[in-house]
Amino acid sequence: MDHLGIDKFMVMGFCIGGPFIWSLLKRAPNRIAAAVIAQPVGWRPEMRDRKYPGAFWTTWGPLLNAKRPEITLQTADQFVTRMFETNPDFVFTVTRDFVRSCQNPILVLPDDVPPHPYAVAMECVMLAPKAEVSIFPWKEPKERIPLAVRQIHSFLKAHQPA
User: Fold this and answer.
1) Which of 4, 30, 63, 155 lies most in the core, judged by the most C-beta atoms within 10 Å?
2) pTM for the whole thing?
3) 31, 7 Cβ separation under 8 angstroms
């Protein structure tokens, strides 16, 4: 954003984008006018077992290495071990205390599949003082998707930077 000359902006991310957005909110809170976090990944105790169906990161290394051979399997494995298995908690990148103190407007679109725990998404909504939540489920039936899209548009429009 610095390179583009953009001071204040909005962000939206799905899945792993949720933890990335929390990290961005921690690093540059004054620059983010609003954030939409959809289907965020989150940590649950049963994820310590690599055989758990929500251990989605276990296949990242080989897939990434196949597309980007300069990223070794060892490097990918070190990343996923550090992010998902070395003292992981909650949303991986920030603490509950940070979420509690975050003053940025946030819209959360929860999911409820092993890598996207509903409980973590809703805990974020309950902790963050300026959080809102979409209808749930928002993806099924498919007729609900346009409603979720309208809610995202309205949320972003309401928090558009000057």
Assistant:
1) 155
2) 0.86
3) yes
Instruction: Report whether 36 contacts 11 (CB < 8 A).
Output: yes
**Cβ-contact 143, 117 below 8 angstroms:** no
The first and second tokens of residue 151, run together, are: 């809610």
Instruction: List, for residues 4-49, the tens digit of each pLDDT value.
Output: 999 999 999 999 999 999 999 999 999 999 999 999 999 887 777 7
- Residues in contact with 129: Cβ distance below 8 Å, sequence separation at least 6, in sequence order: 100, 102, 103
- CA diameter of the chain: 48
CA dist., res. 30 & res. 9, Å (int): 10
* Distance of alpha carbon 151 from the chain centroid: 18
Q: And the tokens for 82?
A: 């550090």
